[in-house]
Amino acid sequence: MADVVPEGPQGPTPSEEPPPRGPVLAVFAHPDDAEISAGGTLARWASDGREVHLLVLTNGDRGSEDPALEREELARTRLVETDDAARLLGLAGATVLPIHDGELQNTLEVQAEIARTVRRVRPAIVLTCDPTAWFFGNRYFNHSDHRNAGAVTLDAVFPGAGNPHFFSEVLAEGFEPWKVPEVWLGWTLEPNHYQDVTGFMDMKLKALAEHRSQVQGGLFGLFEEWLPAEAEENGKKIGVQHAESFRVLQLE
Ligand SMILES: [Zn+2]
């Protein structure tokens, strides 16, 4: 990569908008959700120089069909995989909460943990999943952890994270209220934004492949077929090769 990119004689063209700035906080239920839902977008933002943080709400300790596998061991494995994937995507940091897979609830305690992270990171965008998405076609319905992750994150963001009368224990730790200006919801049935991720699909798939415990057997092959095909469909909506779809809310 060149150290210096010389500006053309005209400078940037007027239609060329600078990349958006400010930190991003992604909040998902399981260690590999962020990659599957929004890996291209997160990789692109990190590559733009944005500070991208990931908060995973459960430790993924039921993400196996093998009854002989110890859940504590699986949780430890998935922690390492999460770190490896985050490093590959260029994230500023990844945190995994010690909540059991399949047991995520929208509680004040989890809201406070998310609000603490929001107040610490002070994100321009919080990205999570759409809690209203139940049925994807007639062959899959959404995991309760995914729905609850979206709900608990939205409830932590507004009004809690921005209001000093919510989560006063977090305020006492020195984390001032922060109003999140923009929320992006992945895994949505009502997308209103297609994010161009052309050039970032390889990294999305490589990051997903770091979740080795989850892509054993033929599963990675399925992802390799399904994710680019889905991104191509989304890309057609905005005339690019690959895109990821989101429901974007402007809160300010
Ligand atoms: Zn998941």
Could you walk me through the main structural features you see in this protein, from its secondary elements to its overall organization?
β5 (135-136) and β6 form a beta hairpin. Residues 1-13 have low confidence and may be disordered. It is globular, with a radius of gyration of 18 Å. By secondary structure, it is of the alpha/beta class. α6 runs antiparallel to α7. It has helices spanning 33-47, 71-89, 108-121, 144-157, 168-172, 201-209, 219-238; strands at 24-28, 52-58, 93-99, 125-129, 135-136, 140-141, 182-186, 193-196, 243-250. The protein has a seven-stranded mixed β-sheet, sandwiched between helices. Strands 5-6 form a two-stranded antiparallel sheet. The chain binds zinc ion. Zinc ion (ZN) is lined by residues 29-30, 33, 143, 146.
